Amino acid sequence: MPVLHESTENNAIIHTSWERSKTFGVDPDKINNELLTEGELRDRTNQFHDFFRTSTKILDRLYSQLKRTSFMILISDVDGYIIRSWGDFPFIEKAKKVWLDVGANWHERIKGTNAIGTALVEKKPVSVIGKQHYCRENHFLTCYASPLYSPKGELLGVLDISGDARNHQVHTLGMVIAAAQACQAHLLLESTQQELTFALQETETVFKGINQPLISVDESGIITRINQAAANLLEQPLERCIGQPLDRWFKESEEILSTCGPALKKITLKPNLKGKKRTWVAQTIQDKRRKKFRVVISTERSRDPFKPKKAENTDQLVYDCPKVKQVLEIVSAVAKTEASILIQGETGSGKEGIARRIHQESGREGPLITVNCAAIPEQLIESELFGYEQGAFTGARKDGQIGKFEAAHGGTLFLDEIGELPLSSQAVLLRVLEEKVVTRIGSLESKPVDVRIVAATNRPLAQEVQKKRFRADLYYRLCEFEISLPPLRERSDLLTLVDFFLKQVAQEIGINQFTLDHLAKDKIQLYHWPGNIRELRQVLRQAAYKTYFVHRSTVISAEELIFPQDRSTNLLLQSKEEEAVKQAIQSAKGNLSKAARMLGISRTTLYKKIAQYPQVKEVLEKIKNM
Ligand SMILES: Nc1ncnc2c1ncn2[C@@H]1O[C@H](COP(=O)(O)OP(=O)(O)OP(=O)(O)O)[C@@H](O)[C@H]1O
User: Fold this and answer.
1) Residue limits of the Sigma-54 factor interaction domain (predicted)?
2) Which residues line ligand 1 (CB under 6 A)?
3) 353 C-alpha to ligand 1 centroid (Å)
């Protein structure tokens, strides 16, 4: 055994290593070598691509400190093969003689006790000086090595400084340890940045397909993320899917991981998941070097499964209310006539849907063309409605443009928000409606048009006429037949619509259904719905998405129903507030916490309201005395 000069721990390490070397059958007097071919060396060096990219500066700095000394720097991989070295003549030549050189294996199995091999086995920094080396030919060396770890904590290899034993300095081991730690820190930073970039890309892909079942898998085929819709299809709780290998469920997982490029690739479930016959597709997210990183798997719906589904089915009119039923009966009756129709109704109450129904039932073969009068600047209204000839005005398109009237020839022109049409344009519109001909701007030629006019407004147009903001003659011309759509709060089918929209969003997400809990139902029925059906749909969609993706539930609670209007009082307009508070207290049978939750206000605010409204106080006292 060698004479030991170093720390007790290092001595113990050397001692154990000598024992191992004996067991490995290493002959201390023989030259043992295991060398890599060029191809093998290239493959092993490639594994260190990221390491060298992030650590070159540190290693160069270390080398500059050791330049022209009898020391060299070496990197070995996890199996002990030296894959890179830095050093100067003449020491490097001496080192080559004992194969302390790129391509040679310095595992203890081959070379007995040595800093590289022993640090790999012990997974600790080690110094091996002179005769501490197991093989006699290496006694002229002094070596210091520290293990290198990947950001995932796996042993990558070893950083080693070797030199002439006569120049042994204790602090060199400290230098190696510090340099190895710096290399690891840089590698970690780089990998965190890369992870972030991928996470962003992954999130983007996942968000695009949020309505669909989605699974994200890392490069070793392990599920890293999965949404509830996918977990349902795999028949496992979501948290039990994470960390599981993909091949547990999918047949071609190996093929996907080895060959899948950015293009979509079909993938099928293993037969043990009966009845889940949907086709799945995989898409790979790659890094700059095209090394696979994540595979996002989804069910196939259309040509591009990551394309979001159309948000709403605008064609379907859902109703179960006598008032709406009556409107639709009238619509059916007048649709086939030539009468121009004015639809009145609050914003979001479904006027456009009615206009579409009129067109569908009119039997007219031309298209339905919609013009939003509020969205077109005053100076462009005429060109929009009547079109223009080539070069008619500065900024006009080169080949001119057809107007909406001409486009709607043989069909229906829907003039939405007609109440917003400026007075100057009202006169022009009236002329066209009377004469039934249009003349493009810049043209002398008039063309007859056969267009059915349907207009809509959320302003009381008759009052606008009285206030001289809307021309009386145009009003009468547009309003040969008037249809009034009831606002949502006057409809008796609120819960039918709620059901419909919840089914719609459940279908989009890929689950069976959403339900509202008791308080949520009460809250929805108490609200005054200023934005009508559009607002109802929005509120429900937001609540459903939050319930599902944040709370992982399908039962929507009152807290998730956030009404855009009156966020501060969160419920009713002043005039209706007293009634709402009263009703909430009645429904909650005097339970004030429950009533406050239903109203979306704090208990303190509710106490203030009770004090403010004598009728509410009375109701509460009555309930208490019951
Ligand atoms: N009966 C219904 N069934 C299902 N969805 C409906 C119904 N009525 C309206 N909607 C939906 O509510 C939303 C608002 O309807 P629409 O755009 O027709 O209202 P609007 O009165 O024309 O609104 P605005 O005054 O803002 O132009 C649309 O998404 C529409 O699909």
Assistant:
1) 317-545
2) 312, 314, 316-319, 345, 347-353, 416, 458, 533-534, 537
3) 6
